[in-house]
Amino acid sequence: MRVYLVIIDETEEAHSALRFASRRAAKTGGAVHILALVPKQDFNAFGGVQATIEEEARDRAEVLANSAAGELISEGARMPQIAVRVGDAKTVIKDYLADHPEVAALVLAAAPEGAPGPLVTHFSATAGSLSCPLFVVPGALPDAEIDRLS
Question: Are 92 and 3 contacting, i.e. CB atoms less than 8 angstroms apart?
Fold first, then answer.
């Protein structure tokens, strides 16, 4: 079974990547994995304050991932696998790919204007060392065009 990994956050690019991945999964009998990232906090507050800040960030990421999963299910897709990880985005994604050899493609979307975004920039520069293909969805594509192409 083909598994498409999508990194979810609050950007419109994440929506485009999720839409493309879910359509590809439906057409190929595959599945979608949703990975929500929680950035590691760069400061050390008092223990209780730091723990509260990290817990709130994790809760926000879980809500975002579950909302994305709900969007897929409402459109008739399979229930995606959801993971929430804390740490540097690039490292967490590489580790996730290493731990999940069933992932057939990493699906990201570029920003509609300007620079493509930090994850697209990083992973397109290192695509040759990935364990799976990298799909980059152009950020300016409307949903109908994403549906047609997927």
Answer: no
- Cα Rg of the chain (Å, integer): 16
Q: What angle do CA 118, 120, 123 make, to 5 degrees?
A: 100
Element (H, E) at 32: strand 31-38
Lowest mean pLDDT among 3-17, 42-56, 78-92: 42-56
Q: Which amino acid is at 91?
A: T
How many angstroms separate the CA atoms of 52 and 102, rounded? 34
Inter-CA distances, 112 with 12, 27, 65, 132, 142, Å? 9, 26, 22, 24, 10
Classify 108 as helix, strand or coil: strand
> What percent of the chain has a predicted confidence (pLDDT) above 70?
93
Q: What pTM was estimated for this model as a whole?
A: 0.88
Query: In terms of C-beta density within 10 A (0-12 exposed, 13-18 middle, 19 or more buried), how is residue 74 classed?
Result: exposed
- In order of 27, 75, 77, 108, 123, the CA distances from 138 in angstroms are 20, 22, 22, 9, 15
pLDDT digits 0-9 by tens, 80-125 = 999 999 889 999 999 999 999 999 999 999 999 999 999 999 999 9
